[in-house]
Amino acid sequence: MSKGTAALVAPPPLAGTGRRRRRISGDRIFRAIAYGAAGLILVIAGIFIIALFIPALPAITRFGLGFFVSQTWDPVRSQFGALPAIYGTLVTSAIALVIAFPVGLGAALFLAEDARLRFLRGPLSFAIELLAGIPSVVIGLWAFFILTPLMRDNIDPFLKHTLGFLPIFQGSASGYGFLTAGVVLAIMVLPILIALSRDVIRAVPRSLREASLALGATNAETIWSVILPYARAGITGAVLLSLGRALGETIAVTMVIGNRPQITGSLFASGYTLPSVIANEFTEAVGDVYLGALFYLGVVLVLITIAVNVIARLLVWRFTGSERAAV
Amino acid sequence: MKSVLVALSAGAALLLTACGGSPTGTNPSTGGAGVPAPPRASLTGAGATFPKPFYDAANFAYNKKFSQVTINYGGGGSGAGIQQLTKKVVDFGASDVPLSSKEADAMGGSDKVIQIASTLGTESLAYNLDGVADGQLKLTPDTIAGIFLGKIKKWNDPAMAADNSGVSLPNQDIHVIHRSDGSGTTYIFTDYLCSVSADWKAKTGGPGKSITWPTGDGAQGNAGVATRITQTPGAIGYVELAYVLQTKMKQAALKNRDGNFVSPSAAGATAAAKAFVGSSPSQFSIVNASGKDSAPISGYSWIILYKDQADKTKGTALVDYLYWLTTAEGQQYAVNLHYAALPSSMASYDLLVLKGVTSGGSALLSVS
After folding, report:
1. Which of A62, A132, B30, B141 is most exposed, with minimal Cβ within 10 Å?
2. 3-state secondary structure of B115
3. Which of A144, A176, A286 is closest, CB to CB, to B103?
4. Residues B165 and B209 in one domain
5. B218/A258 touch (CB, cutoff 8 Å), yes or no
């Protein structure tokens, strides 16, 4: 890149000192481009925050911090609160991670460590990439037409039968709600989780593995006591990146969550998430306060995402004791 | 930037009219049926999605008739349409509910905008109940309000049985499905509930495009509600008539104000509209209409434009097109798609206000 730019800009050099001069001007141009690109990102991020904040102002001044704890969402009376949507967002993302983490880590370990079924690696990697490439609206359609009847008729009754003593698996199940949305999100974050964890596990130095095996540890012991502790920071990063994706996912969740702003203990019940409220209501939202409340939800979502990123950073630092973040 | 574009297009239009004379292939005498031939123009509109299939079909037909005019209707929702018209990004907006005074103020005051009724729709209550055939279920204003308030929870509730003798209603939970997205369909339905149930009005505070629902789940769009009803045994929800007919769902017979049970139909919507003499953007509600055939959950859809058009050529094309849309020739595209034809009283109201559209002080529509 720098060479090409330099060749285009600099005049044909004289013999001798020319070569050196050209390299310097090329570096300068490259540096300018790089600084410009970096600055542009900051400007875009700044504009984005301001553009989100200004339309939200009418709602922020009216509801203040009470917005975070109010359960009312009443466009007719212009009373808005974000708590049910925040709750729904956090609960569905948590379900997604609870399901996706063991599955994702297991698949990553298989891909990175198991030497016996090597021929399965190719097809499995392909399947993961395929899953990652499916647009969320298509996953939503599949969930809407196939997963929800399956949840209603098979999975929810099974959970009720076996784990029904837990409050989270009680109540009537329509196939729509927190649990179904969580399952859909789990499917959507699995590819990221697997791919990142696999790379992190593969990056564990060979010498560590061999040392462990040489000391007489089994494969399982090596994975448990050597590889996973070493890769912990990277895996944590992978989990938090997945969480970021789950928090912001909109369309597939909207199709299966039931779109009801309520807070209940049962995972079978319908709920609402921050992105779903925005996607559902912005087209017909009239008036400063109503539209402002939707932008305010956007602000809340951005704050949650930033918080997740900060926590990710802190965890990675804590685990590694330095800036050696694998992700 | 926008004003530059407007200026450019205005300049281009001037050039065209100055150099080209009358557009090729058309002149007022070939307009036919008293519809004026419009000047060359490209019009854009945005707003309500409910009438979009009608506008799309009508726009296509109008462009075939007058090839010098292209109309692009983008949909996007009433709120988006109103906002884009306020910012003058589009030439006309469409909404299932006329402008509120606040929205009109944002456009410079209610005397600066005009609103015409473009079509008429009606809603059905579709249900999914094994053993109860299409039209067999009878609902009264009280039972509809009871179901959507969450007071009637089972299909075999005694309140339901009174109107449905001879039908064996199962001991099954009622699953209420409503729209999750803001929608004119919801506005008309909640307007109906408010007019028949004081309880409902007290609880929800009034009609709205999005409201706080006492019970039930939300699904996106008419199609989303229709699919969820089809999927869920025991479900009931309000859906535009066209979707019910297209998807062959079962719909309930609804008791209207005169006490007759009617199956919602386009003709029933027109009958309901006729029952309200003197409908206008400020008196737009036609729910719970009197008349023996009236479909009780009906409503107009509206088109909004500025009274004073900055660009004379564009403005002329716009009023010519909108006038055509309200004539029998334009309305046939609504009827084909299960919307109801405007009653003649509303069509004459539309003509009257369209005649009031001006540019530089002179009226744009030349229809006697």
Report:
1. B30
2. strand
3. A286
4. yes
5. yes
Structure tokens at B139: 């609902």
**Could you read off the pLDDT of B231-288 as tens digits, one per residue?**
899 999 999 998 888 888 999 999 999 999 999 999 999 999 999 988 888 889 999 9
Reply yes or no on whether the pLDDT at A250 is more than 60: yes
Residue A142, SS3 per DSSP = helix
Query: Are residues B110 and B129 both part of a single domain?
Result: no
Q: How far is A24 from chain B (nearest CA, A)?
A: 40
Q: Cβ B210–A281 below 8 Å, yes or no?
A: yes
Residues of chain A positioned with their CB less than 8 A from the CB of B219: 259
**Which of the four pLDDT bands, split at 50, 70 and 90, describes residue A5?**
very low
Domain span including residue B356: 10-121+298-363
Which residues in chain B land under pLDDT 50? 1-32
Residue A214 lies in a domain: yes
Place of tokens 């540019």: B359
Which of B209, B224, B232 faces A284 most closely, judged by CB atoms?
Answer: B209
Judge whether B354 and B323 are in contact, CB under 8 Å.
yes
Least CB-CB distance to A75: which of B78, B82, B210? B210
Closest listed residue to residue B188, CA positions, set B266, B275, B122: B122
Q: Are A284 and B207 within 8 A, CB to CB?
A: no
The reply to whether B133 and B257 lie within a common domain is yes
Q: Quick one: average pLDDT of A220-236?
A: 89
B57 and B91, same domain (yes or no): yes
Write out chain B residues lying below 8 Å of A172, CB-based.
Answer: 173
In chain A, the DSSP E strands lie at 73-74, 79-80
Based on the domain organization, do B15 and B150 belong to the same domain? no
Residue B345 inside a domain? The answer is yes
Is this prediction's ipTM beyond 0.85? no
Amino acid identity of residue A152, one-letter, is R
Among B103, B211, B220, the residue with its CB nearest the CB of A76 is B211
What tens digit of pLDDT does each residue of B65-115 get? 999 999 999 888 888 888 899 999 999 999 988 998 888 998 998 889 999
Would you state the pLDDT for residue B357? 94
Is pLDDT of A141 > 50? yes
User: Is residue A24 situated within a structural domain?
Assistant: yes
Q: Has residue A229 got a pLDDT over 70?
A: yes
User: What angle do helix axes A228-248 and A83-113 make, rounded to 10 degrees?
Assistant: 140
In a domain, A238, yes or no: yes
* Residue B116 is assigned to a structural domain of this protein: yes
Asked whether the beta carbons of residue A76 and residue B232 sit closer than 8 angstroms, the reply is no
CA A53-A56-A62 angle, 5° bins: 130
| Partner A contacted by B93 (CB < 8 A) | no
CATH code at A230?
Answer: 1.10.3720.10
Q: Which residues of A touch B103 (CB under 8 A)?
A: 286
In a domain, A51, yes or no: no
- C-alpha span between B330 and B344 (Å, rounded): 13
Identify the CATH number of the domain in which residue B62 sits: 3.40.190.10
Q: What is the pLDDT of residues A85-95, one digit of tens each?
A: 999 999 999 99
**pTM for this entry:** 0.81
Partners of B79 on chain A (C-beta within 8 Å) are 282-286, 291
pLDDT of the residue at B215: 93
| CB within 8 Å: B212 and A73 | yes
- Asked if B142 has any chain A CB less than 8 Å from its own CB, the reply is no
The minimum CA-CA distance between B226 and chain A, rounded to whole Å, is: 13
Q: Provide the number of structural domains found in chain A.
A: 2
Q: Is residue B285 part of a domain?
A: no
Q: Give which of A288, A320, A275 is closest to A136, Cα–Cα.
A: A275
